[in-house]
Amino acid sequence: MNHATTIRIELENLMIKNGYSMAQLARSTHLNPGTVSAILSGNRTLSMDELDRITSVMELPKGHFYERYFEEYLVDLKPNWTRISSILYHSVELDNLDLFEKVVTRFKDKINYASSLFEIAEDLFENGKMEGAALLYRAVAENEKNQYSERLAKCQYRIFLIKQGDNQQQNYQAASQFEPFAERLNELDQLDALKDLANTYRSLRRWYKVEEIVIKLKNKAHYQYHHKRDGKCINLEPLKSPKRPLFFYLAYSSLLMAGVFEARGDYTNALQCTYAYADLSWVKEDDEQTLHWKNLFREWAVANTYGNKLLSGDFEILPEYLDYIQNNEDEILPALVNIMEAANRFNQNVDPILHKFETELNRFISKTAVGMYTEYLIVEYMIYLFYEIADYYLNHNIYSKGYDFLVSCLEKSASTNNKSYIIMCVGLFESFRDKASSEIIAIYQRIIKGVRKNEKGNRFTLFGG
């Protein structure tokens, strides 16, 4: 007995159970009597909407017959695109990703469906259905893996964005896999792709990669901005534009490069880059979006100028810096990172500052979102901050507080697979192991055991494909 017969028998049983005539069944399902007759006789292919109506009248949950529908109309018979797209949307709506994947697998190798599957992937991506979108992007990418196509590059870009999360190892793998495809994108899409790649490498503190990407971003943004403004660019697609104003990518290149110099301890050049994105007088546009970003760059420049001066050893600006962050709550977390790093580097006493911001520190420990910063970025800043505070307290013989922050840093580093800071935490712990209580040692050993277990799991994942 095939599945078409089974669904029809279910419908016939409903008629018998409720004593429905054809007309009564049509009324209860809000279908035309002729449609019901054709379905029962097997002369009409059910649509997903009709199936949902019938399922509702049977008092069964929506999606109850989707597996049968797939096997009848998408496996046994030659389907049309309407039925394929319909079951994809219906299954993802119900979070039935197993069925969704079955449908994708069934048709992913059919080249004539690649464009349509990609369009659905884009729609799901825009509507936040990331798991379904990722399955489709991977299917289309696999289908076109031997082609040098923009669509393949767009699939890889979307997969990269979807994979971004709080696991640094996975973020790095996603960036490495996407990077070779970035310059296959449309010239303007490349700006956003390079910006996103640079942000990922910056969060991973892979500064040589940030610099490499920034050089490309700056050159491409310079070409697009000045040629477009002067009316010389012939390659720009009509109505095509990046997510942000073109000047943004030039200014952001300077901001990223300032971070590279800061990481190297070259605060002179970091300040020069900061001054570059602070002065945007060369930007001619004056629309609302442009003014919004110009104001943000000026605000970032103020905060980062304070930070770079402090990190270079200029503690005279510290009172002014503290006044600034008191009035700019979004900047408290990154500012405290700078203050603690500078205090440790130049052996300064900042106990009053730690006391002053004790409430904020407790809030960071509970991982409450702060202003414009995302949860992931907050965790990264907390890791940096907790390490610096732990280092500060331990070197000032305040062991209890030092170990509290060190344990918090190690836990958060382990949860995000931040290997650099895991290693740094281990080094700091071992330097003061003789001062640790048995309770702290037990907590430390538990966290390290979890790190080792996770590392073994990562190895199996990597070698197991």
From TrEMBL:
Pfam families: HTH_26 (PF13443). One of its GO terms (molecular function) is DNA binding. CDD domains: HTH_XRE. PROSITE patterns: HTH_CROC1. This is Helix-turn-helix transcriptional regulator. Coiled coil: none annotated. Residues 11-65 form the HTH cro/C1-type domain.
